TrEMBL record, chain A:
Statement: the UniProt record of this protein carries the keyword Cell membrane: no
Domain 4Fe-4S ferredoxin-type: 337-365
Signal peptide residue numbers: none
Segments of this protein annotated with the region Disordered: 1-49, 487-507
PANTHER family the record matches: LACTATE UTILIZATION PROTEIN B
PROSITE patterns noted in UniProt: 4FE4S_FER_1, 4FE4S_FER_2
Keywords from the UniProt entry: 4Fe-4S, Electron transport, Iron, Iron-sulfur, Metal-binding, Repeat, Transport
Protein name in UniProt: 4Fe-4S ferredoxin
Biased composition annotated in UniProt, kind: Basic and acidic residues: 1-19
Species of provenance: Gluconobacter kondonii
Automatic annotation (TrEMBL), chain B:
Domain LUD residue range list: 100-193
Organism in which the protein naturally occurs: Gluconobacter kondonii
Lineage, uppermost ranks: Bacteria, Pseudomonadati, Pseudomonadota, Alphaproteobacteria, Acetobacterales
Name this protein carries in UniProt: LUD domain-containing protein
Gene3D superfamilies with a match to the protein in the record: NagB/RpiA/CoA transferase-like (3.40.50.10420)
Length: 507, 195
């Protein structure tokens, strides 16, 4: 591998450019430190997010970089927001457009199918991930495809697509840099927009040294990016099929839209003769008047950039080419029927809720052990598997920042609270929480018992040894200190001061 | 699978969202549009990492020639400029891979975002938009629209099978937020305003 760089990559003027996904202050990890890995997955057993989060926080350099990088994206988003007078109006519109489309989703799906088919796109329907994978494999097999190039898609992560294709001897090459890093490291993406954001440059250097033969001692981001470009290009040119996701699907024109910064969706779709797009059924919008609302919000919310470098519109196959769209349900129609949780289907996968979330920024996306991490993950993941993801809705401080930044106004923090109630109602609650809740429930149910318990608790807090307050059962105590306890309760104070005062006035 | 199609549509029809969700009217948000959109376009393009070439009234194609500084094949999809590689009906998408520079004309530009729109009509072979190392783009200043709402009123969306907004060169910051141009697509993008 040559270390010779094109001069564009070395920024000869020494200017700091911060468009696209770039960070505004130059960040650089100072030390090399082993990368903390994600949550331990044990079959269907509930994922322990806090265990993985603790390991991430113990890796201080990773935690600090991750926190700084994502907070920077949040601040860039705020700057963009202030530059657009109609920002709040756009958010309201985006929310109502999505609600409208979801309320007539059957109509819009059929309209898209009709228009896309008329333009020469073959439309398929898959009720779950397994069916999606089978449909794609059938298309690839019948055309003798051995190598597939692919742009980033959270839906294919949901479907376990890469593993399935590996078992079926189809080589899948991810073309997004972050996603390719994750594929070569055999790790899931940790963030919907920046999949390798939890890695330091030294982690990437070691992955590339092992897999594509880069210099293990060179952790320069320009060098590593160039190595990947040079290693991936021959694979792109020799692939027989390309795959993309879809950010938005325009029913009235039969168009689907893909947004990338690298141009890798265009490469994947246009270089080989066959293009397959896997798209969730919730991505529909009515028409072209609605599309700019979302294009204007997406990258500004995600990265604080006015638009992605590439916004690509596909309305039919090119001459001599072939185009397929697989519309995938995978739990979405069921979610549409959930009274409290259907608004989660409005999500456009910008990741703004992750960037702003204090829990996400300090624990890393892989700690959630699920396809979707961060606040949006807390409310989507339990719809896939209520038992396995039952602990996730507790990985939130309920500060509501996620709801405030959401470009389509999903009531994320309210849904987190609703999931806690729903999970408790379904008995999906950990044994420790059950014991604590039961005791708390009995005390809180009776005003007399509650009042009697307060002085006890107060004196207990003051006199109990530290180890009894900060133990394994009290997960809240682990990273927090309890404020100093007052000498009396409010009721005691009131009785002593106000009551005696008013009695004094009477007499 | 047709069984799944009916099952999915049936499952959707069995759900009934509470409340009315009318389709909202979307304004164009263009009342503050300046008369001259060129300055705003340039500002937005530069912000996205693109470059503006200085026009030369006496010799309109001189800036294009001057922008070509590296050896390697030049492909031109515009009649104003002659490249050294011809695109014919037999040209395959992968044939564009060795190209160093492609000279293209944009269908139109968007001042809000510095975006250039290309469709298969301007690209001839779709891969001329992103397989070359560098792009040099001619843009008619009369074909700049103010914002994305105006852009989606254009006729191209109902004519083309493939249309892309390219806003600056290919970019990534997937490693520690360090910006690198030329992640997979073009390493640089220069624009010459030329009617």
């Amino acid at each position: 591998m040559t270390a010779e760089l094109h001069e564009e990559l070395t920024d000869p003027h020494g200017e700091h450019l911060d468009h696209g996904a770039a960070s505004s202050p130059p960040l650089k990890s100072r030390i090399s430190e082993p990368q903390p890995r994600g949550a331990k997955i044990r079959g269907n057993r509930p994922v322990d997010q806090s265990e993985a989060a603790n390991r991430f926080m113990a890796a201080t350099e990773h935690e600090a970089m991750h926190d700084a990088r994502l907070w920077d994206l949040r601040q860039k988003r705020d700057k963009e927001m202030h530059g657009i007078e109609e920002w709040e109006e756009l958010r309201n519109l985006a929310s109502s457009i999505k609600e409208h489309t979801l309320s007539k989703l059957d109509y819009y799906l059929e309209l898209f199918e009709k228009n896309a088919t008329a333009n020469g796109i073959k439309v398929h329907w898959a009720k779950d991930g397994a069916e999606h994978n089978a449909i794609v494999l059938e298309i690839l097999r019948s055309r003798g495809v051995e190598r597939l190039i692919k742009s980033k898609s959270m839906l294919t992560e949901e479907c376990g697509f890469r593993e399935f294709m590996a078992h079926n001897n189809v080589e899948v090459i991810e073309t997004d840099l972050g996603e390719r890093i994750q594929q070569l490291d055999d790790e899931a993406p940790s963030h919907v927009v920046v999949p390798a954001v939890h890695k330091l440059r030294t982690d990437v250097a070691s992955v590339f040294a092992k897999t594509i033969g880069s210099d293990p001692d060179n952790a320069d981001a320009h060098y590593l990016t160039e190595c990947q470009r040079e290693a991936t290009r021959p694979l792109i040119l020799s692939a027989q099929a390309g795959m993309t996701g879809g950010n938005f699907v325009v029913a009235e024109t039969g168009t689907f839209v893909v947004c990338t910064n690298e141009g890798n969706a265009d490469l994947s779709a246009n270089t080989p003769p066959l293009h397959i797009a896997s798209i969730g059924i919730e991505k529909l919008i009515p028409g072209l008047n609605e599309l700019p609302v979302f294009i204007r919000l997406l990258s500004r919310s995600a990265l604080g950039s006015p638009i992605t470098q590439y916004t690509s519109h596909f309305r039919g196959p090119r001459e001599g080419g072939e185009m397929h769209v697989v519309l995938v349900d995978n739990g979405r129609s069921e979610r549409l029927g959930m009274e409290k949780f259907w608004p989660g289907l409005k999500c456009i996968r910008c990741g703004a809720c992750m960037n702003t979330c204090p829990v996400f920024r300090r624990s890393g996306g892989l700690s959630y052990g699920a396809t979707y991490a961060g606040p949006i993950g807390l409310i989507i993941d339990p719809t896939f598997n209520v038992h396995k993801y039952r602990n996730l809705p507790y990985s939130s401080t309920m500060n509501g920042s996620c709801t405030n930044v959401c470009p389509v106004k999903i009531n994320i923090h309210e849904q987190i609270a609703d999931w806690r109630k729903t999970l408790a109602g379904e008995g999906e609650i950990s044994p420790v929480k059950k014991v604590m809740m039961k005791a708390a429930g009995e005390v809180l149910a009776s005003p007399v018992v509650y009042r009697a318990s307060l002085p006890l608790g107060r004196s207990a807090l003051r006199h109990l040894p530290h180890f009894m307050l900060y133990n394994k059962l009290n997960t809240w105590g682990r990273k927090r200190d309890i404020p100093e306890t007052p000498k009396q309760t409010f009721n005691e104070w009131y009785r002593k001061n106000r009551k005696s005062q008013s009695e004094g006035e009477k007499s | 699978m047709s069984g799944s199609r009916d099952a999915i549509l049936g499952a959707i029809r069995s759900t009934h969202l509470q409340g009315e969700y009318p389709r909202p009217a979307v304004p164009l948000f263009d009342q503050a549009a300046p008369v001259d959109l060129k300055a705003l376009f340039q500002k937005s393009l530069e912000r996205m990492g693109g470059k503006m070439l200085l026009p030369d009234v006496a010799d309109p194609m001189a800036p294009v020639r001057q922008a070509i500084v590296k050896p390697g094949p030049v492909v031109s999809c515009v009649p104003e400029f002659e490249g050294d590689m011809k695109i014919t009906p037999q040209t395959k998408p992968t044939d564009i891979a060795p190209v160093e520079y492609a000279v293209l004309r944009a269908a139109f530009g968007v001042a809000e975002t510095g975006s250039l729109c290309f469709t298969e009509k301007q690209l001839h072979v779709n891969t001329t938009g992103f397989l070359p190392q560098h792009l040099i783009v001619l843009l008619d200043p009369a074909q700049i629209v103010y914002n994305l709402h105006n852009a989606y009123q254009r006729p191209e969306w109902l004519q083309a099978h493939y249309a892309v907004f390219q806003s600056g060169p290919s970019a990534t910051a997937d490693i520690e937020g360090v910006l690198v141009h030329g992640a997979q697509g073009v390493r640089s993008l220069s624009v010459l305003l030329q009617p």
